[in-house]
Amino acid sequence: MSSTTHTRPPGSGSREGEPGEEGSAELPSLAPWEEPASLAVPEPAPGQVLALVQEGRAAATEAERALVAGKLNQALDALAAGRGSREAADLLHQLLEDGQLAGLEEAGGRTCRAAAIEALTKFGFPYALEVRPEDLAWLRDETGDAQVSPWAPTMAGTVLVAGIVAQWVLPSLMGEPLRGSVLPLTLLMGLMLMTLVPGVLGPERSASKRAGLLGLLVLSLVQLYLGVFGGYYGALSGVAGLLAWLLLMLPRR
Q1: Which intervals of the chain are annotated as region Disordered (predicted)?
Q2: What is the pLDDT of residues 162-183, one digit of tens each?
């Protein structure tokens, strides 16, 4: 009986337990839940941001400067997507205060100064509180947010603080002790003040501003419910929070 040798076609690979061909490349995983590594944008180091700034300022033509500005804006957006750090915040403050971002604008019209200010506001507490008022005013003018009533954020903060103070002072003036535990009421009031920061300082249509406004609304409704149905004092601060939320939600003029 003659023996027959079966040959597998090239490229069919090796069977389980058989050694593969030397030099064969390992195929990447195509699992649907795994994001391709090429799509992930790593957070840039402050040195990389500073290098892009220097490259943009040294560009010989407007086209080259716009190209570098686009890369710098992408780096600033990736920096804003992180958790924020003291080192990154200090770098952005230095770039803004020294005017190093002046004249850097990508082809789409977005300036690097606007991207840097937005990054600081997205860092959250405490870095968002450190943004200079003139930079915030410039950003509103740049993005068209100057049409929002300028007195609304100040009025919203005043109403909320006045409601919280009145919630603590009025019962004592009337000779009535606070009903229920003081700790939940104090915690809710503190959280309301924290949500007011991104609700006021956050750029329009940004995720931080929407989250702040939503948090303010929910906390105000919780305090109003506890003050009316839960046996706690909290109705005044809850109403003040709702009024502050309405002021911040005022339509554009």
Answers
A1: 1-28
A2: 888 888 887 777 766 665 567 7
pTM above 0.70, yes or no: no
**Terminal-to-terminal C-alpha distance of the chain:** 96
CA distance 229 to 157: 26
Smallest Cα–Cα separation from 121: which of 196, 200, 202? Answer: 202
| Residue given tokens 């003050």 in the structure block | 227
Q: Look up residue 179 and give its DSSP letter.
A: P
Phi, psi of 111 (to 5 degrees): -85, 155
- The helix/strand count (H/E) of the chain reads as 9, 0
On whether the CB atoms of residues 248 and 199 are closer than 8 A, the answer is yes
Distance CA 148, CA 22 (A): 66
Cβ neighbours for 153, distance < 8 A, ≥ 6 positions apart: 200, 247, 248
Domain ranges of the chain: 46-146, 152-248
Distance CA 99, CA 101 (A): 5
What are the pLDDT digits (tens) for 15-56? 444 444 444 444 444 444 344 444 445 677 777 888 899 898
Count CA within 13 A, CB hemisphere, residue 36.
4
Distance CA 81, CA 225 (A): 35
CA distance 216 to 210: 10
Question: Cα–Cα distance between 194 and 77 in angstroms, integer?
Answer: 24
